[in-house]
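anyone else get weird line breaks when pasting these?? whatever heres mine. first is seq + tokens for prot A
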Amino acid sequence: MATTTTTRADPGAAPVRRPQVRANRFGSPLRRSQRVAGYLFVLPTFALFLGFVLWPILRTIYLSLTAWGGFGAPRFIGADNYTRMLGDPVARRALIVTLVLTAVTTVLLTFLGLLTAVLVNVVWKHVGVLVRTILFVPGIVSFVVSGVLWKLIYDPNIGTLNQVLGAIGLDSLQHPWLADQTTVLPAIILVTIWGGLGFAMLIFFAGIQGIDPSLYEAAAVDGANPVQQFWNVTVPSLRVVTGLVISLGLLNGFKAFDIIYVMTGGGPNHGSEVLGTYLYSLAFGSTSGSIPQLGYASAFSVVTMVLCTLAVIAQLWLTRRADR
């Protein structure tokens, strides 16, 4: 809708009428075209999200409410799969192992990653690049490759670990590390720490580089020693980074599968069974006489998704709290 305004160049001049354009509720034509272009740019990504993320999630949730072996039409059974999960001793064992693995690896990776980053930044400063490279190399190696490598190291007959223990006179400590329920989980946790320490260290190291040096100078002027500077300057300044490392540790722990499947397959006697490995065995029939239980396996997928969602919520909460 257009209106006109009247202006005068000087008292003797005739009035000049200029059109004034009033923006309608849809904005100017230029803004409308920009908005349409933006939607068109987003549309391919949104379509991929719908087809490869949202639809599989919704389909998995539906299958978790059915009894389906992969053939024929799924039979709707409601929440029976979740009820069955509560009474399944292997499922309870897998959940406990998953939670223990997640908690231990998250705490150790957070603590050791921060400690290593500080050492690289202060103590090993002159050889920091070399140390960072050595620590980060395991993180770029596939967990499948790492699992095969460490499975050979832990081998009771030809494994490097037992051979080294025998060579230094500690034959009594030689052990079938992956064949004993008491040692299989600590052995896997050690491999997980070995593979994830470099990445956690690198995140903390990048965060330390962003701390204002004047904070350390002010603390030194106040008489703070290096330990006090660490607790009163470094740790509070890395709250957001710490929240990120914790959330990544939780996510990686809840969805753990590949390294455990390669090293133990969930054994011995479900001693290293996690939700991912039990889900895999159910879906592909190795625990049910070669009869797939895709509906029951989908219920484990939903539980894993819920745990990962809680990890993301925890990360958002920690980040928001750190920004206050």
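and prot B, same format (seq, then tokens)
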Amino acid sequence: MPPFVSIIVPCYNEEATIRHLLEAVLAQTYPRGQMELVISDGMSTDHTRVAITAFQEEHPDLAVRMVTNSARTIPSGLNQAIRESRGEIIIRLDAHSMPIPEYVERCVAAHQAGKGENIGGVWEIRPGAETWTGESISFAAAHPLGVGDAMYRLNAKAGAVDTVPFGSFRRSLIETIGAFDETLLANEDYEFNTRVRESGGVVWLDPGIRSIYFSRSTLGKLAVQYWRYGFWKFRMLQRYPHTLRWRQALPPAFILILVLLIVLSLWIVPARYLLGLQLFVYFITLGLAGLKLAFNKRKGFLFWGLPLAIATMHFAWGAGFLWSGILNLFKKNG
């Protein structure tokens, strides 16, 4: 008998994508009787819960349970779903995701082969909306200038990594290192994987484990997402400063230098030239990347859409990171 698997999903106002996830879970090649889906809903105000209930009625042969996440945060939702689940192996997914049919089967096989303590795969990022903005954001979310060396968003080889999206692990891992940190409202996956690695475990990326991820649909939503990432990344780094990677340090460093040069340029002429040079090099680099991608994909809007999306990611992430640091400084001195 294959091990029983619990798929856990935190969810809030996801009526646009939740059906994609539900149907993808239904299509899994893993034995349906050895699998359950536990959705921890943060009291959605749209039709998410209606969509889940309708799916339950249509497919009673798939064990789908919905629990209420009154704390309405991602880590609290994950932990509640874990408590409510009964699987030997737990697979974390997202309401914005759509795993391939072999997803669960390949996760279980990797665990049985002893590849790692937390095992995940790679993302195929698709637009959250069929607009030039939505498509530009999806390309930016998988571009090296947007995500640096985050291998799960790029072409990757199997091996040990810092982190994986969604991840799968045995229930015994929670008993060893603890659950998700509910004081972090973002970056909970990275923090969890840091504890996995520091406990001597392996975070393993298998490119055969693939899922489709729907990116944000507008630049405003993208900015909010990356502000949260940056803000909570600083809080995580207070505990694990050695986990800082160059791709994470560049946006706040860029904004800090930019602000410094803007202030200095009010009085010092050379600072104006340095400011102009910084902005020229930055936007030329993004512009050339956009031009290259627009030519390769035969989509002219990427010439300006890609730079806009990547710049939004950089500025929002960097500003969120710095603001978190400023608030922490005032808290210490207060």
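btw re prot B: The CA atoms of residues 251 and 318 lie 5 Å apart. The chain has two domains: 5-217, 237-333.
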